[in-house]
Amino acid sequence: PPITINRDAKISDAVTIMMMHNFSQLPIMSNPRSVAGFISWETIGIGITNGLTSTDVKDFLKDRVVILDLDTPLLDAIKTVIKEEIVLVQKKDKTLS
Q1: Which residues are bridge partners to 31 per DSSP?
Q2: Rounded-to-10 torsion of CA 84, 35, 97, 10
Q3: Which residues of the chain have pLDDT under 70?
Q4: Angle at CA 81, nearest 5°, toward 73 and 19?
Q5: 51 close to 8: Cβ distance less than 8 angstroms
Q6: 17, burial (CB in 10 Å: exposed 0-12, middle 13-18, buried 19+)
Q7: DSSP code, position 59
Q8: Are 26 and 19 in contact (CB under 8 A)?
Q9: What are the pLDDT digits (tens) for 79-93?
């Protein structure tokens, strides 16, 4: 399963996971089948630049994320990735793939 973080986690946990895996973004989940958004170095930087002092992941999340079905044709998925920079892929049971 993909590596994710819960929206109620601490920002330090998200940063640690992103650094350990060399990720530039990380999906944020409300529960195992519900995507809340994602956190990225960009969302963290924007938050800090705007004076955000929260230690909670949920305060740094970007909630606009494209979710593709697992059976989305590869060429269509590539077009979406190029346009959006990040997409998530979801199985029929709503878990991430």
Answers
A1: 34
A2: 100
A3: none
A4: 125
A5: no
A6: middle
A7: G
A8: no
A9: 999 999 889 999 999
